[in-house]
C-alpha cells in the first residue's frame, strides 16, 4: 500500500517537472535576436535619405519581410526534437558480429 503511494508521488513530481520547463532554449533566443537585428537593419536602410535609391526601395523591404515573416517565426516555433530513452538503440538495430 505504501509503495503504491510512493509511486503516485513520484509520478506527480515527474509530471510537475515536465510542465515547468521553459518553452524557449538558448538557440530560440539567438534566432529571435538575429531576426530583430535584421528588422532594425531594414529600418536603418529604409531611412537612408534618398527616395530614388535601390537600397530604400528594394533591399529594405526585403530585409523587413525576411526578418518579420521568416526569421522571427522560426525562432518562436523551433523546438529541438528529444529522443526518448531507448530509441537510439532501436534506430541502430541489432548488432551482429562481422567476420
- Describe the global form: elongated
Distance between the termini: 53 Å
The overall pLDDT, averaged over residues, is 82
Radius of gyration: 25 Å
* Main sheet attributes: strand count, strand direction, barrel closure: none
Order of helices and strands: HHHH
Helix content: 55-70%
Main structural class: mainly alpha
Proportion of strand residues: under 5%
- Strand segment count: 0
**Number of contiguous helices:** 4
- Low-confidence stretches are none
Commentary on this structure:
The chain is mostly helical. It has a domain at 26-80. 70% of the residues lie in helices and 0% in strands. It has four helices and no strands. The chain has helices spanning 2-19, 26-46, 54-77, 87-92. Helix 2 (26-46) runs antiparallel to helix 3 (54-77). It is elongated, with a radius of gyration of 25 Å. The model has no long low-confidence stretch (mean pLDDT 82).
